[in-house]
Specification:
Elements (H helix, E strand, L loop, with lengths): L1 E4 L8 E4 L1 E2 L6 E11 L1 H7 L9 E2 L4 E8 L11 E4 L9 H4 L9 H7 L9 E3 L2 E5 L9 E5 L3 E3 L6 H4 L5 H13 L6 E5 L3 H12 L4 E6 L2 H9 L4 E4 L5 H9 L3 E6 L4 H9 L1 E9 L14 H4 L3 E4 L7 H13 L9 E5 L4 H9 L5 E5 L1
Parallel strand pairs: 5-9, 12-13, 12-15, 13-14, 15-16, 16-17, 18-19
Antiparallel strand pairs: 1-2, 3-8, 4-6, 4-10, 4-19, 6-7, 7-11, 8-9
Helix pairs in contact: 5-6
The chain binds copper (II) ion.
Copper (II) ion (CU) binds next to loops.
Length: 363
Amino acid sequence: MKAAVLYEINTPLKVEEVSLDEPQENEVLVKIVATGVCHSDLHFMKGDMPQPLPFVPGHEGAGIVEKVGPGVTTLQPGDHVILMVAFSCGKCPRCAEGRPSLCVENLPIQMMATLPGGGIRLHKGDQAINHLFGLACYAEKVVVHERSAVKVREDAPFEVVCTLGCGVSTGLGMSINTAGIRPGDSIAIFGCGGVGLSAVMGAKLAGAGTIIAVDTLDNKLQKAKELGADYVINVSQEEPQAKVTELTGGGADYAVECIGKVDVMVQALGSIRIGGTCIIAGMAPLADQLSIAPFHFLLGKTIKGSTQGDVIPSIDIPKYIDLFMAGKLPIDKLITKSYKLDQINEAFEAMEKGETIKSIIKF
Ligand code: CU
């Protein structure tokens, strides 16, 4: 089968034939129909987050189960599934308390790029190829742990709902779960890529009173307006902290940072009211340090991390899909372009330049 492999940091992906092993204990083989192009892959491909090479990236896959390995109880061939970027074991204390996005087994998988349990099912001749995020969805087929896959309704279009595997659920969940927006609350969203625009939609759905979108690109801000932003701020023209403070009469209840830049995190913290909450979802390079004035804490402000929007995949993903299918959550409007696997490098280039908002690879 064909897959896009990264052999060296900062080089183009190589689309080539590789081999895929049969699914082992608790694993399933999924034929991929669509995979979203997400910015977090790029951090790993550029070496901001060191990973063992070579690897196949791609972590917003959706497709159809073809085969199941021994011991699989939750899925069967023919099931439509979305593959989730964050693995959860279902047994650790964080999973037991209902916070699977904080599963203790997830981090090692994300740092080692193997399947849960350490397995590698991808090969090129004698060479093992790692599975980024335990998935590797820029490939015609994947073998993944059954708990990485969420079964979804069969009438949902793969090329739209695949984005719920990472970016879209992260943004929706950040507004709905991490912030816990209540009707009338104000929120400033820094960065209008796939995650930030999904946070706009999540805030709208939760009944936010004032939604302010902040970015440097007018095409993204225009999209934010379409999806529910009440105000937009182009930071190349206006200073965002002063503007958010003015628009909200003293600072937003919530600010979210969806880019992964430390100076933007500082701006987000400076945009919330006394006692407000600043949520960081952006993925900054591993070696970066965040420097903030401790005075913010005297104002009773909170800074919070958010992993995968604190979603509970088996519950939240089918709900988001139902909302989309009912016309109440326009996640399809995020997707501005689709590519073939052979065009994967082109897709990343366009995303980096800000030409596409959210693109997908269609198989
Ligand atoms: Cu992602």
